[in-house]
Each structure stands twice: as C-alpha cells, then as structure tokens.
C-alpha cells in the first residue's frame, strides 16, 4: 500500500511527537499488517530525522520529497475534546511533489491520500493521473484552518477534493472538515460527493461514531465505549481511515463483496480502533484488547 500526504512533528506539552495525518495512516496500516510506502515532505533536519526513525521503526518505507523550508511542525493544544494546531512555515507552505513518484503509486494495491495541499493545483492535479482511482484511491482531505488562510484557498481546496473524490473508491469527510470547506454538515457533503461519482463516502463525527454512505445504502457505527479515560483525540480519524483502507485492500485481494455487511463489520472494527487510539497520547494507532 502507498500513503501520500503530510508527515510532521506534533509539539504537545513541550514534547516532540511524530505525527501528521499521512504518517499516522502509514504507521497504522503497518501495525495492521500492511506493507507500506509513505510519500511525504521530510527534510534532513532534527524533526525530519525523528520522523524517518519513527517510520522505520514500524517498517514503513519513506520516500521523502524536497523540503526546502525544513520539516513541518505543529504545536498542538487541547480545546475541549479536540485538538488545535499552529504550524510552522514549512507546514503552512507544505508541498508534496507526487509526479516523479507516480510509478510507485501505480504499483501499489491501494493508495491513500491524507492531508495534502489540494488548494495548490501542482499538487492536486497529479493525483488525477493515478491509475485506476475508482478501484484504488482512498482520499482523506483532512483540512486544517491553518492550511487554508483565505476564502480563495478554501474554494480551490473544495474544487480539488470534488474533482479527485469523484473518481475515488472512498472519500473521508469529518464533521469539522465539512463545516470548514463546504459550510455545511458532513452528510450533505457525502450526498454531493456521491452524486459526483465517488463510490463511497465515510463520514466521521467524533464521539458520534462514523457512517459509510454508499450508492445503495448508509451504515452507521457508534464509537466504542471504554473504561479508560480519553487522553487526546490525535490520530483518531487517521486510525479510522487506516482500518478501513486495510480492510478494503484485503477485500480487493480476496474478492470479498464490499456491501452492507462488509461495511458494518469494518466500521465496527474501525470504531474500536479509534476509541483505543484516543486512550493513549499521540497519533499511533492502537489495537483494542480482545
């Protein structure tokens, strides 16, 4: 499997924690047993070396793209049940050059795109050239307010998500994503993306669980309750998309029908994984106790 997007260092309570949506997804997939390549902007600096070591420790192969401004960092602060981020210049001006690595992406069984600067046409357009996106492409736009400073950025980002999502196997939309990018609630966004051509849309709503909208049915799964307290919500959405992507890749290999029963089982597993991930610090995917 191949993952494309952001890798950065989260600074949480003064400590450096490897993170970034794409890195979290890649490591999560590896922890679920997948063979993973990660394409991300990482420099040869202290934060970058931390990310390289973290990826390697989980068996993830990192294909770094140029990072002239250094490796991205994000200072995270808690705001109720969610996290807010302030990015350094490298994070705000992030750029993942996919074009030279399209052969690597085309060789993967599944490609997951998570948290890219899709408001930049030079980064968005190459994703439209990935082979067989209707079967192989999973997209988590994962927008952040700090990445979209003006209404024009928001419009460009939305238009790119809709163009790419229209040809994708699964598009993930969070409740905060829908409000930031579309100015509406996520189920309305799901209806729009399905009408444009997406095969399925995964809506995540934090403590309210997740819903998979396909063209013929919608399946909801609540988040799992656990006795342990929530430590933070970093990586919960990344764990969810990793769990779904891993199951989708397995279904492709085994020829399993991706229908209502499949979605019901996969979403339940994903909500257990997301809940377990919230019980530890940082974005490392956690497997629930069985």
UniProtKB/TrEMBL annotation:
<protein>
    <submittedName>
        <fullName>Fructokinase</fullName>
    </submittedName>
</protein>
<dbReference type="InterPro" id="IPR029056">
    <property type="entry name" value="Ribokinase-like"/>
</dbReference>
<keyword id="KW-0418">Kinase</keyword>
<dbReference type="InterPro" id="IPR050306">
    <property type="entry name" value="PfkB_Carbo_kinase"/>
</dbReference>
<dbReference type="GO" id="GO:0005524">
    <property type="term" value="F:ATP binding"/>
</dbReference>
<dbReference type="Pfam" id="PF00294">
    <property type="entry name" value="PfkB"/>
</dbReference>
<keyword id="KW-0547">Nucleotide-binding</keyword>
<dbReference type="GO" id="GO:0016301">
    <property type="term" value="F:kinase activity"/>
</dbReference>
<dbReference type="InterPro" id="IPR011611">
    <property type="entry name" value="PfkB_dom"/>
</dbReference>
<feature type="domain" description="Carbohydrate kinase PfkB">
    <location>
        <begin position="10"/>
        <end position="288"/>
    </location>
</feature>
<dbReference type="InterPro" id="IPR002173">
    <property type="entry name" value="Carboh/pur_kinase_PfkB_CS"/>
</dbReference>
<keyword id="KW-0808">Transferase</keyword>
<keyword id="KW-0067">ATP-binding</keyword>
<comment type="similarity">
    <text>Belongs to the carbohydrate kinase PfkB family.</text>
</comment>
């Amino acid at each position: 499997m191949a993952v494309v997007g952001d890798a950065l260092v989260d600074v949480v309570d003064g400590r450096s924690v490897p993170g970034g949506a794409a890195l979290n997804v890649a490591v999560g997939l590896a922890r679920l047993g997948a063979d993973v390549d990660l394409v991300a902007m990482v420099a040869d600096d202290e934060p970058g070396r931390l990310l390289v070591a973290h990826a390697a420790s989980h068996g993830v192969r990192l294909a770094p793209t140029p990072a002239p401004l250094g490796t991205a960092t994000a200072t995270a602060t808690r705001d109720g049940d969610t996290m807010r981020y302030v990015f350094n210049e490298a994070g705000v001006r992030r750029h993942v050059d996919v074009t030279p690595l399209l052969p690597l992406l085309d060789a993967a069984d599944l490609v997951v795109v998570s948290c890219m600067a899709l408001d930049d046409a030079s980064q968005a357009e190459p994703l439209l050239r990935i082979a067989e996106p209707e079967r192989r492409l999973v997209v988590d736009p994962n927008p952040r307010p700090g990445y979209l400073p003006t209404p024009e950025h928001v419009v460009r980002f939305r238009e790119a998500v809709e163009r790419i999502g229209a040809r994708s196997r699964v598009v993930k939309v969070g409740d905060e994503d829908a409000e930031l990018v579309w100015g509406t609630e996520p189920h309305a966004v799901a209806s729009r993306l399905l009408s444009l051509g997406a095969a399925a849309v995964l809506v995540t709503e934090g403590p309210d669980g997740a819903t998979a909208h396909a063209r013929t049915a919608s399946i909801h799964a609540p988040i799992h309750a656990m006795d342990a307290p929530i430590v933070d919500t970093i990586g919960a959405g990344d764990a969810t998309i990793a769990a779904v992507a891993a199951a989708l890749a397995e279904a492709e290999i085994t020829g399993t029908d991706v229908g209502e029963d499949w979605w019901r089982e996969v979403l339940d597993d994903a909500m257990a994984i997301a809940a377990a991930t919230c019980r530890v610090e940082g974005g490392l995917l956690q497997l629930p106790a069985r």
